[in-house]
Structures are given as structure tokens and as C-alpha cells.
Design a protein that fits this description.
Elements (H helix, E strand, L loop, with lengths): L6 H21 L5 H32 L3 H23 L8 H30 L2 H17 L14 H20 L4
């Protein structure tokens, strides 16, 4: 979390970290506690990443890109599907019959979302938005990830201003729960 660079570099680095966590999951023994730990790490990373995008990236997409509203709405819909899968996984143990099936669905959704952002959205942003704005967005995304929730909240608002008001409070509660339970260590 917090890699530096403009918003595209920051989010692309997050994408590679998520890819690595999925690879580690595949390498872990089915039904093992390592798989639950890795799903927890994936959840933390994906939720923080999504919240930061929803707070800062997608408003910029709406503002600076032609058909930005449609693009942002599509990306937010992708996030909603991912967050629902994360919520399902949160309620499961790694030896549950459908645990691995849900992770496969999650990876499919996340991979498609990453491909769309990196091959469609990010190049449009690079062409349409001044580098100064992209740098500023990178800083805002890094700051947002520090206070973002670490658990899925599918019913929480996904657009400003409500998401910017509620996310830090949810994040505080989530980090307190994580500390007490040892999740994410």
C-alpha cells in the first residue's frame, strides 16, 4: 500500500500485488489456513483499492473523459460484484465446499476488471489528463487507502460525497476488528 507515482502507477502496482496474492493462493494447500489468510489479504487489498478508486479515480474519469459517466458506472458495477464475492468468502472457511469455487469467480471478476482498467481506462486517462492531475490523484489514492475499510461493505455508498464521509469510520472499525482478531498479520 502506498507505492508512489501517479495514480496509474499506484493502481497498476496494486494490481500486480493482487495477481501475486492469487498466485500464492493457488500454491497453498486446498483447505489450509494459509488459504484463508491469503483471502483475508486479498480482501484487505481489494477493498482498500476499490474505495480509493471510487473516492478519487472515478470522479476524475467522470470529469475528464468523454463518456466518463458510463465508464465510471461500469467500473463501480465491477466493484459491486467483487465486493459481494468477498462478503461471501468472509463467511466461509477454507475447507467449505464452495470456498475455492468462490475464489475462482472472484479471480475471474478481478482479472477482467484489471484488464479493462489497464487496457482501456488507464490509456484514456494518460491521454486526456495532465500529468500534474494524475500525480495529485496518486497522492489522494494513497491517502484514501490508509483510512479505507479492510472488509467488504456491499451496502455502503460507492460515490462521493457519501463514500468519502463514511469510509474512514468504517475503516477505523474494520482495523480495530482486525487488530483484535489478528486478521491481516
Amino acid at each position: 500500500m502506498g507505492h508512489g507515482g501517479d495514480v496509474i502507477a499506484e493502481l497498476t502496482t496494486d494490481h500486480r500485488e493482487v495477481d501475486e496474492l492469487f498466485t500464492q493462493f493457488e500454491d497453498a494447500m486446498p483447505g489450509s489456513p494459509d488459504r484463508k489468510r491469503l483471502v483475508d489479504a486479498l480482501t484487505i487489498e481489494l477493498v482498500r483499492h476499490s474505495v480509493a478508486e471510487e473516492q478519487h479515480l472515478y470522479p476524475a474519469v467522470r470529469e475528464h473523459l468523454e463518456e466518463g459517466d458510463a465508464l465510471a458506472d461500469k467500473e463501480i458495477a465491477d466493484h459491486a460484484r467483487v465486493e459481494q464475492l468477498l462478503k461471501e468468502l468472509e463467511q466461509r472457511e477454507p475447507d467449505d465446499l464452495d470456498f475455492d469455487r468462490i475464489v475462482v469467480k472472484l479471480r475471474t471478476e478481478v482479472t477482467a476488471h484489471i484488464d479493462d482498467e489497464e487496457n482501456n481506462l488507464f490509456p484514456q486517462l494518460r491521454d486526456a489528463v495532465h500529468s500534474f492531475i494524475l500525480e495529485s490523484l496518486g497522492e489522494k489514492v494513497r491517502a484514501a487507502k490508509k483510512t479505507a475499510p479492510t472488509r467488504p461493505h456491499p451496502t455502503a455508498p460507492s460515490t462521493p460525497p457519501a463514500n468519502k464521509l463514511l469510509a474512514p469510520g468504517l475503516g477505523l472499525v474494520d482495523r480495530a476488528r482486525d487488530y483484535v482478531t489478528g486478521r491481516g498479520r
